[in-house]
Amino acid sequence: MVLTVVIATLIVPFETFALPLVWWVNQLPLLRVNGFRLEWTTGWMDTYQVQILPFVANAFSVFFFHQFFQSIPRELDEAAIMDGAGWLTIYRRIVMPLSGPAVATVAILTFLPAWNSYLWPLMVVQSEDLRPVMVGISYFFQLNVGWGQIMAYSSMITVPILALFVAFQRSFVNSIASTGVKG
Fold first, then answer.
1. Which of 19, 85, 101, 144 has the most CB atoms around its CB within 10 Å?
2. Radius of gyration of the chain from Cα atoms?
3. Residues 174/101, Cβ–Cβ less than 8 Å
4. What is the 3-class SS of 2-38, one letter each residue?
């Protein structure tokens, strides 16, 4: 039942819950460093946390991991239990090493929308030094800048995405290649 509700959230567009999410992140506590003191404040507005943490876990990732963990044979768990392993040991030493391709796939497919987001950072970040590159590209259109500079900036935006894909390429390709294999 819980998985069905999580999957049902995939059909809800982001714009429908963007304003309530802004209100919620503005109510969350935040630990800030002020000089040499730590102080608690409320509100994550205008921070890096507000751009990253609300999107770390999404419905697609939950569904993808659920399907991947269902494909791991139960016999591995049973053999580990017979050897005296607890659930945490089974998770740490058997399940997580086997789920490298799933982790790589989710990392890439979660990073891309976060990197390309425009509306959310525009809503929650006011200072220019914290805004991501997609919001920064809109500043080019406010100036009298040539298309060559815009294209150079756009090319530089793709470098982190390519680096992430190259870092996880083997696991990502293994994940895609193993989706049609039974046995």
1. 101
2. 21
3. yes
4. HHHHHHHHHHCCHHHHHHHHHHHHHHCEEEEEECCEE
The CB density around residue 104, as the number of other CB atoms within 10 Å, is: 21
Hey, which bits of the chain come out as E strands?
Answer: 29-34, 37-42
The 3-state DSSP class for residue 42 equals strand
Per-residue pLDDT of the chain (183 residues; tens, 9 = 90+): 888 998 898 899 988 999 999 999 999 998 888 888 898 888 899 988 899 888 888 899 999 999 999 988 899 889 999 999 999 999 999 999 888 888 888 888 888 888 888 899 999 998 888 888 888 888 877 878 788 888 888 888 889 888 888 887 877 676 655 555 554
CB 115 within 8 A of CB 134: yes
